Amino acid sequence: MVKKKTIWITGASSGIGEALALQWASPETYLILSGRDQLQLETVGSRCKLAGAGILILPFDLTDEQAIVQSVDKVTSIVEKIDILVNNGGIGQRSLIEQTPNVVAHRIMDTDFWGHVLLTKHLLPFMVRTGGGSIVVVSSLSGLFGFPQRAMYCAAKHALHGFFETLRLEHKKDNILVTMVCPGRVLTNISYHALTATGKEHGLLDKGQENGVTAQYCAAKIQNAVKKRRKQVIIGKKEVIMPYLKRFAPRLFYWIAERVDPNS
Fold first, then answer.
1. CATH code assigned at 212
2. Distance between CA 180 and CA 160 in Å, rounded?
3. From the candidates 30, 153, 192, 244, which is the catalytic residue?
4. Which of 33, 55, 228, 233 could form a disulfide with 12 if both were Cys (CB 3.0 to 4.6 A apart)?
5. In total, how many domains does the chain have?
C-alpha cells in the first residue's frame, strides 16, 4: 500500500493540471495523473519523477462513467487514502447559444460538470472512510458570471459551485474540505481546444489568454489556498475585479461585460 501523500489530478497532461503536478512533485508525494492523452501524461510524469514523486499514470475520459468507476476501483486498491483530489480537466467554448447544437452543449456539460461530479461521487465513500481529504475544483471566473460565447461553459462552472459547496456543507463532519478555484485568464491551451458550434476546436490562442497569468503562478496560488484551507480563491490579473463589480456595482459590471470582445 502507498503511504506517501496522495494527490489525484485530472487534466494533468497540460496547463494548470501539469503545473500543479510539478508544483506538488516531491519524494513525499504520490501523484495520480489523469487525462485523455497518455503520452503527454507520461511526459509530465517523467518530469515529476525527477523531483522524487511516485507516479501512477491513469488516463480516462471524463465523459465515460465506466472508465471513471474502473479508475476509482484501481486507485482505491493501491492507496491508503486520497489526501487531495483535483477536479481540473475540462474543455472551453467559443459559440453563440442559438448556434450551438445540443450534442456540443452536452459534450461540454458532460466534461466540465458531470465528469467531476461522477469522479467525486464514486471516490467520496472511500475518502469518508479513510478520514477525509481536500477536494480542489478548478472552476473559473465564468463560474461567477455569464460571458458571451461561453453559455454551456459558464453553466457547467456555475453548476460546479452549487454541487461542491453543498458537498462541503454535507461532509464537513467527515473532514472533507472543498476549495473552489476561479481563475481568470491563464496562459494555457484551453482556447485552442475550445469547442465551436460545429464541435471542432477553436484552434486559436486568444489574446487575453496570451496575456494571462502563467499556469505556474496559478498552481502556486492553488497550492497555497489548499494549504490554508481556503473555501474559494480567485486568480488572475485585472479581470479579477469583475465578480466584485457584479456584486457591488452591477451597472458598471454590465456596462463593461456588454462591451468586452469574447475573443480578445
1. 3.40.50.720
2. 9
3. 153
4. 33
5. 1
